[in-house]
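Exercise 7. Given the encoded structure of a 82-residue chain, write a plausible sequence.
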């Protein structure tokens, strides 16, 4: 299993664990130069749960994902599309 697949699994696990409708959560992997971007699409009611107050939850998710991706030598980011 590649590091990208592991990182995608971490993003998917974190997102689906936090939302009310995990079946509507979708993670798409996009390459942007040397960076891997994980785009998270959610139900409109779940977007606030992922962002959190003052962006604390998405900031924590990004920190975890960057640490996991950095272990594999890649640069990663997480974007919430809504």
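Solution.
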């Amino acid at each position: 299993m590649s590091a990208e697949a592991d990182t995608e699994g971490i993003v998917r696990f974190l997102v689906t664990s936090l939302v009310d409708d995990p079946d509507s959560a979708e993670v798409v992997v996009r390459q942007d130069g040397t960076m891997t971007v994980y785009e998270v699409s959610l139900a409109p009611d779940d977007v606030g749960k992922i962002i959190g107050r003052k962006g604390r939850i998405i900031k924590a998710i990004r920190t975890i994902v960057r640490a996991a991706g950095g272990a594999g030598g890649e640069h990663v980011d997480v974007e919430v599309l809504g």
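Remark. Residues 3-80 form a domain with the GMP Synthetase; Chain A, domain 3 fold (CATH 3.30.300.20). Students should compare their own answers with the one above.
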